[in-house]
Amino acid sequence: MPPRRSEGSHCDRRQFLAGTAAAAALTVLQGLQPARAQGTVGSAGVPDSRLLEDLVAANRILAKHGIVDAYGHVSARHDKAADRFLLSRSLAPELVTADDLVEYDLDANPINLAGRSQYSERYIHAEIYRARPDVQAVVHDHSPSVIPFGVSSVPMRPVYHMAGFIGAGLPVFEIRDVAGMTDMLVSDAMRGRGLARALGQSTAVLMRGHGVAVVGATIPFAVARSIYLEVNARIQLEAIGLGGEVRYLDPEEAKKVLESGENRGYERPWELWKRDALKDM
Ligand SMILES: [Zn+2]
């Protein structure tokens, strides 16, 4: 008979997880502490264990919701330095653990890569963090129902309250405008800057023929917006398919959703999603 998991062991496990994350980060960051004041490129320090745990959870949550598959990634700004962020080494998000997280500067240079391979589109994250001091987390994905709105003249608009963050609509990044004919990847700083410019002050930017970049003031905001953006896209496609006139949220209604705390900061789904995402670790 399998041993029953008591409430106590659940708590112990949570502490263990947080401890494991911090220990893993320490291992990765050990020996990378030359003072930044000396002008050398060194680590900003060990990130908060809760931040590491949330970023690992974010990777797995997005995978479980089909927002990312083997491609796509999520990052968080470093809690000890605004000019650093944390992003996994090149790895399918569902497999990411704390010791896969790499610290980057805002030129997308890795601080502690240790020979591991990197995501070619890390410039998406670097240039958005540089352009948007308010952003603490960035998701890049190829969310399938969102793609049509990046290639069609029909704009994505909010069809229900959970997607009020879409506001009056989302900008579309046209990579040809900044780099001509490409392989469609935002794999250098120039393309990243073009994407960040297109994002402007929006919550997300569609990428024509590619996917989307979504931002948030916390990891739960960026993750939840990515999930509800996909849901909104599906519902909008269904509403358009009905053939009548579609009545979207008015920009004033969307603004009120944000002003009232945007779905209570997604605290309720985050608690649920995070528990589910980490229970198999
Ligand atoms: Zn991509």
Key features?
7 strands; 9 helices; 7-stranded mixed sheet; alpha+beta; disordered N terminus; 281 residues; binds zinc ion
Strand order across the largest sheet = 3-2-1-4-7-6-5
Ions, cofactors and other ligands present here are: zinc ion
Mass-distribution shape: globular
Q: What letter string, H or E per element, gives the SSE order?
A: HHEEEHEHEHHEEHHH
- Compute the number of strand runs: 7
Give the topology, please:
Blueprint: H1 7-29, H2 49-64, E1 73-77, E2 84-88, E3 101-105, H3 122-131, E4 137-141, H4 147-151, E5 172-173, H5 175-179, H6 189-199, E6 204-207, E7 211-216, H7 219-242, H8 251-259, H9 267-278
Parallel strand pairs: 5-6
Antiparallel strand pairs: 1-2, 1-4, 2-3, 4-7, 6-7
Helix pairs in contact: 1-2, 2-7, 2-9, 3-6
Bound molecules: zinc ion (ZN).
Please outline what is shown here.
This protein is α+β, with helices and mostly antiparallel strands. The chain has nine helices and seven strands; from the N terminus they run ααβββαβαβααββααα. The protein starts with 6 loop residues before the first helix and ends with a helix.
